[in-house]
Amino acid sequence: MAQTYLLTTPDGEEVHVESSQAGETITTASGKTVEVPTLRELKKLPLVEKEEAPARREWSVGQSILFVVGLLLLLGCSVSSVALYRITPLESLDKAREVPIELIEGDVEKWTMEDTLSFWAFATSGRALGDMRGNASTDRYVLDVYESRQTFLMLSVAGVVLGLILMGGAFAFPGKSTS
Question: End-to-end distance of the chain based on CA atoms, in angstroms?
């Protein structure tokens, strides 16, 4: 391996020359031509300290796994977020919870004694709960669908954020150092 020496030109310019260039004529960075001394004279010049290249870092297996899991989570949740948002926009759940006034049959305080007793007889019968669920099953189903889609949409968005965090974490942790 050739050693590098610091050659100072007559006008004060410093040039790095290798021992393999001894006796040759070189051109400096300023464009001047300079004669490199013989090897015997070159060895009297100061040596240039080799700059060590910074140690390269290679990814560890853990970093690779973290990055791949984060990437898969990011991609999968991004696709599902877009799909779920197209099916159920964020505003739709609030609209689904609004109960139209037509669904309210009457004010309990205005019921007569006969209305109250007939409702009591119905409510205490064995089939009351099933009948009430049967009458409201369509509305309840719509609300359940909206709520479940809303939940999955929020989980998808959280998955995107978690994927970004995992991918960033893969870059933040130090890997294997090689020289």
Answer: 18
How far is the C-alpha of 37 from the C-alpha of 43, rounded, in Å? 9
Query: pLDDT for 52-94, tens place per residue?
Result: 666 667 778 888 898 999 999 999 988 888 887 777 655 554 5
pTM over 0.70: no
Whole-number Å distance between alpha carbons of 4 and 52: 14
CB 91 within 8 A of CB 153: no
User: In whole angstroms, what is the distance from residue 171 CA to residue 179 CA?
Assistant: 19
The contacts of residue 165 (CB under 8 Å, 6+ apart) are: 70
Question: CA distances (Å), 30 to each of 15, 17, 135, 151, in order?
Answer: 10, 15, 93, 69
In the chain, the percentage of residues whose pLDDT exceeds 90 is: 9
In order, the DSSP letters of 96-136 are HHPPPGGG----GGG--HHHHHHHHHHHHSTTHHHHHHHHH
Alpha helices in the chain, H assignment, sequence order: 39-42, 61-87, 92-97, 113-124, 128-172
